[in-house]
Amino acid sequence: MSPKNNEGVLLINLGSPKELTKKSVRQYLKVFLSDDNVVDLPKFLQQLILRLFILPFRPRNTLEAYEKIWTSEGSPLIISTDKIAKKLSNKTGWNVEYAMRYEEPSIEKALTNFKNKNIKKINVVSLYPHNAMATTVTTELETLSVADRIANDFELIFVKPFYNNESYINAVSNTIKPHLESDSYDKIVFSYHGIPRRQAKKTDETGEHCFSTTSCCEVQNEGSKDCYRSHTRIASSLTAEKLGLKEDQWEVAYQSRLGPGWLTPFTDKRLAELPTEGKDNIAILCPSFISDCLETLEEIDIRGRETFFNAGGKKMTYIPCLNDSEETIELLEELVRSS
């Protein structure tokens, strides 16, 4: 069913510093890394690491990274999300707001706007295709908490992760297809944002399935149904199948790790290894993200490219995220209508 005039759609993305300053970057990192669903360590240890080892040093490096991708309009992530919201509203006539899980524009501001319009029923879409504590889970918890503070009569409908939705798979496939038609590659790399292995295990409702075998992600049961690693591998497999790729033509890797114990293989390590394996012409995409952001534009398309070329790579094609493409808008419309 389509949302009525007294219903709303709230799109939520991760977030970005408010400004291109060290102070703003530091504040963003502080809020982001203080989330217990992102850094799921005892609070004392989490804050000790954050205040002694991260905040004194990381903001400068992160600022330098943002400086490489920041535009005259601001953060690419926020620009992309804003365009998606406007296009979805224009296409459907729905009341659409967007927010960031961290920093601005805030979830509180979006929900307040709905309250002021007397909109009580809200379809909430987290712009992350795959389930994870640090994305879909924290977003849902925060939205519920903020809604409870603002009003006691909101009806929130959360769209479930859509990693295996046919329209989503078609959309990702169609971003890759033009590159396959114009060139041939030794390997296509699906690079997903990494998470600690312990967080993958926490979504295993059986407590016994996760990492029990090398093929645990391919087995569909209660242990894998909410597993981020399983979602990423299923989505990649479905996409490769849609494109007619053979098993040796593509692979999955994980980027953006913070410390030991994260999902492997690591994207940066694979980018350094592929040329030594005779794979010196590759394409790479980042399906964890609907919108291009720091982790795609700087970490992969700039630093990752440098790593690959320094290792002897000859050509690396970065395939952009879905961003505000027409297929993204059609996908979101379908997700909301079927929620």
Features of this protein?
alpha/beta; Rossmann fold; 2 domains; 4-stranded parallel sheet; 12 helices; 15% strand
What report would you give on this structure?
- With 339 residues, the protein is α/β, with parallel strands linked by helices.
- It folds into 2 domains: 7-162 and 326-337, Rossmann fold (3-Layer(aba) Sandwich), CATH 3.40.50; 166-319, Rossmann fold (3-Layer(aba) Sandwich), CATH 3.40.50.
- The chain is built from 12 helices and 8 strands.
- It has a 4-stranded parallel β-sheet, with helices on both faces. It has a 4-stranded parallel β-sheet with strand order 6-5-7-8, with helices on both faces.
- The radius of gyration is 20 Å and the shape is globular.
What is this structure, in a nutshell?
46% of the residues lie in helices and 15% in strands. With 339 residues, the chain is an alpha/beta fold.
Q: Kindly give the count of domains.
A: 2
Order of helices and strands: EHHHHEHEHEHEHHEHEHEH
Give the radius of gyration: 20 Å
Query: Which stretches are low in confidence, meaning pLDDT under 50 for 5 or more residues running?
Result: none
Enter the CATH topology name of the largest domain: Rossmann fold
Average of the residue pLDDT scores: 96
CATH class of the largest domain: Alpha Beta
CATH-derived architecture of the largest domain: 3-Layer(aba) Sandwich
Please count the helical segments: 12
**Percentage of residues in helical conformation:** 40-55%
DSSP strand content: 5-15%
Structural class based on helices, strands and sheet pairing: alpha/beta
Numbering strands along the chain, what is their spatial order in the largest sheet?
A: 2-1-3-4
State the separation between the terminal residues, measured CA to CA: 8 Å
Tell me about the largest β-sheet. 4 strands, parallel
Number of strands: 8
Shape call? globular
